[in-house]
Amino acid sequence: MKTIGLIGGMSWESSAEYYRIINQGVRDRLGPTASAQILMWSFNFAEIEELQHRGDWEALTARMVDAALLLEGGGADVLLICTNTMHRMAEEVQRAVNIPLIHIADPTAERIKAAGFTRVGLLGTAFTMEQDFYKGRLMAQHGLDVLIPGEEDRATVHRIIYEELVAGIVTEASREAYRQVMARLVERGAQALILGCTEIMLLVKPEDSTVPQFDTTAIHAQAAIDQSASV
Fold first, then answer.
1. Helix, strand, coil: what percent of the chain each, to 5?
2. What is the pTM of this model?
């Protein structure tokens, strides 16, 4: 079994889901007492959030590279960044290490294409929805047509992530707000929806939209299982 290196703590709420999903998947695949070999570097998300909103991506990149090198040095065979937003510096992280980094957008796109969808709505932080590092990869490398919510809806989605979900707060009012955002994306032609923030799965469930949802947390974790565990 390969050792999985997780760069987490962004937030720990979703990192805990990674740990749970990966271990459950390894147990299902290898037997009732099996569990995954995992190393995790967990950031203090308060520091990460401050740098994100200051726009200091250079400092954030340095921290991510340092974490990746620590995990590689500790014996990790494969790396995951347990957040969509911080894939903004995925290429820099991959260049810094000699082990593969599983980019969260790639297995997600493969699932979407295998299901026969070509036009998807993207939910995530404002950074993920508005900057090109994520939706650009989906379009350029995977040929998907990516829709993002309108300005007001993007602000709502972002606010709920940072003010509620990263703190483990889940409310029916916020679930309803997301339902409305998703419905508007569907009205614009989205055939499916990407839950492109690893905390959104804490709030949104399959029944909250009329089209299929692709949960990046679960898909990313499954990709780690596929690379690390063999029967």
1. 60, 15, 30
2. 0.93
